[in-house]
Give the backbone structure.
Amino acid sequence: MNQVLAALDASWRILLVGILLGSGLPVLFALGVRALAWGSGGDAEEHLASEVNKPSLTGRLIAYTIFTVVVLMVLCGIGYIAAHGMGIRITFDGIVPVFSQK
Amino acid sequence: MTSVFILMVIVVLTALAFDFTNGFHDTANAMATSIATKALTPKAAVTLCAVLNLVGAFLSVEVALTVTTAVIRIQTSTGGVRPELVTDGGFNILLILLSGLAGAIIWNILTWLWGLPSSSSHALFGALVGATIAGLGFEQVKWLGEGEHLDGVIGKVVLPALASPFIALVVSAIGTKVVFMITRGVTGRYRDTGFRWGQIGTASLLSLSHGTNDAQKTMGMVTLALIAAGQWHDLESIPLWVKVACAVAIAAGTYIGGWRIIRTMGHGLVTVSSPQGMAAEAASAAVILASSQLGFALSTTHVATGSILGTGIGVGAKVRWSVARKMVFAWLTTLPAAGAVGAVMYFIGHLIGGEAGSFTVFALICLSAGGMYWQSRRNKISHANVNEEWSEA
């Protein structure tokens, strides 16, 4: 029974982090794609034949900022995998990660 | 050469063969959706995945000696073999390892033949449990962990397998739903092109983490065989050649690509678009990394499948539940089926005894692998036809 409780305890934490990062990353990326479509103009967005979609600099700037954050998140993921492999423990007791040798 | 030494060599070869099957069985977990949405060509996908698996295998310098301690009691807590079990020079322990690997390989190839993604680590654990029951008795299996510490067959295998597909499914469904809400109004073609880039990033993350986790298991098994045979004594490190051989074996397996499984995961469950592919892969990556942080031993296969189902549910797409049911059936049977093969292999090896026994077990692995490969030629699936329309058959 203790094992089941321990598994449930781990599960909801994983679910929480999963939703935050695992759903968050593609959602952020989607915002980037949305902004880039706005920034690109032309046929990137659905529009009526009579309308003209002009490219927007603001759209592009927002898009590139978002994509930079996405790339940084992926790099953090790679860094995390590498650090774990090297035997470094990373804890997130506050939000700020703490590194320590195992 | 003593019979223990010969058996040790056979165990090492078999372990590398298992690593190879582990590679091609799991290519799909990272790459199936990228191949299905044509974010990457099939060949480019397996190449990228293989390279990252190779890098991943070298990245991890942690000593994975205690691989069997999750489910059986043949090792001490530091990673050595319990001394009372090697009074025969280690022959019996090596035979158990060989039988365990045999069960895992045979189950991996059989499920590949059926095109079903099943967990390689569950196959290995199941077969080791079977071989241990046959060789040392029921009580040498660790069924339950102590207290709150998740361990044993229940805590390390069964419970995570029950929970992880659902967690991944929920995460991926939420991600997919919101992604489609946000990108409403963006032309389909524009959206898909953008998300293909995202997919390559998330798929790479998955491949790398696979290399760091799975290659280690075989490294642990090989080194354990060396220790049991008295050929290696250092519990703090593993031989370099073991690391290189295991990394190359898993990367080669990944490169060969388990096309049958890739096809099932990419096309069999749901027809995925690239935003769905990225949402599924990001969900898998987040769930896997969060679990490894918490020491929750889940299977990449279960997570990837849950994510793909979730992404179908997220957009209300048609899910082929008949295929999903077959997969769940394969998951439920992996542990007992691989266990049964492991036990039978041990009995055969033990009854014949000595070198002849270990050669027989090895020959049986080769024969069944060859037979199943021959069977697979009847409806060959390769990089050329992996993306063909799915037909209900």
In short: The CA atoms of residues 168 and 287 of chain B lie 6 Å apart.
